[in-house]
Amino acid sequence: MSFYAIDSYDRRNDHSWYKTAATSAVTASALNKHFAVELTSTTSIAPSSGDGKVLGMSAIAVGPNASQTMIARYSENSTEQNPIITVSLGDYGSYNISVKDVDPKEATQIEMFALCSYMDDKNITCPGSFGSYNRLKSYIQTAIDMDELPDINNHLNSTKKINWLKGLDVAMKNQVTAQYSYQERSEQIKLRSYFEKQHQDIELRKKLGIFILRS
Prior knowledge:
By secondary structure, the chain is α+β, with helices and mostly antiparallel strands. It has helices at residues 15-25, 109-121, 132-139, 141-145, 164-171, 181-208, and strands spanning 43-45, 51-63, 66-74, 84-88, 94-98. It starts with 14 loop residues before the first helix and ends in a 7-residue tail after the last helix. It has a five-stranded antiparallel beta sheet. It is globular, with a radius of gyration of 17 Å. The chain is built from six helices and five strands; from the N terminus they run αβββββααααα.
């Protein structure tokens, strides 16, 4: 299903919609307290749920029949030079993601959600109604169906690092046929180009021994 066929109403600024969505995002099953976010050099515990407007919203599987809302905002310590996105997971805590450290060839769902939310806010991508991260998930579904990537809808893979660039490459091999596929392909190309540059920048910093200074 194409997201471009859906109206362009920007729900990020409709806080009543977020409240309703946040309520329904967690299923009737009890929260799976065994779910835990892996802390890395890119991901750390945040003291709050972030500062300012909501940048994006999605969901992540936390149990066999349970999902949890993810909400992205800027961290209070975020700067233009070192953008930091705080991803709030409700009862599962809030986490700071150093955007420039997220490697699309090896990133968790939370990391990629933070990166895409930042890209949407900076108009690098077109957020539309659902945000570029949610469309990215639909793009890489082909690679998941072909067993090229772990199933991100399975809670056992929620904290795994996967190769999102590979997922886009598989998706882009499909023939363009539908009316909206040309627009989707244009976005796929744009996303892949930015993700590739992000990966190359990280690899270059590793070679030069340069690391982003954290505030």
